[in-house]
Specification:
The protein has one domain (6-68). It contains 1 helix and 5 strands. The chain has one helix spanning 29-32, and strands at 6-9, 15-24, 44-51, 56-60, 64-68. It has a 5-stranded antiparallel beta sheet, with no helix packed on it. Strand 1 (6-9) and strand 2 (15-24) form a beta hairpin. The protein is elongated, with a radius of gyration of 13 Å. The protein starts with 5 loop residues before the first strand and ends with a strand.
């Protein structure tokens, strides 16, 4: 996944354009529990997506599907 790719949110089906890719830590309380321990997890690939309504969202790349790659 790279900047300029057209992506679809696999949960909602919304389409957007990737404006930034980066690494970020995410603590998932439903899987890892309520006691946060940042030193036990590694950063994962994230993307900042510009949606049709003009807002951006930062989300894990595992929740996105590339629809059309940029050049």
């Amino acid at each position: 996944m790279k900047v300029g790719d057209l992506v679809k949110n696999v949960d909602s089906g919304r389409m957007g354009v990737v404006s930034r890719v980066f690494m970020h830590k995410l603590w998932q309380t439903n899987k890892m529990g309520k006691q946060v321990q940042w030193n036990t997890i590694a950063p994962q690939p994230f993307a900042e997506v510009l949606w049709a309504h003009g807002r951006t969202t930062k989300m894990p790349q595992e929740h996105l599907e590339v629809v059309n790659e940029s050049r």
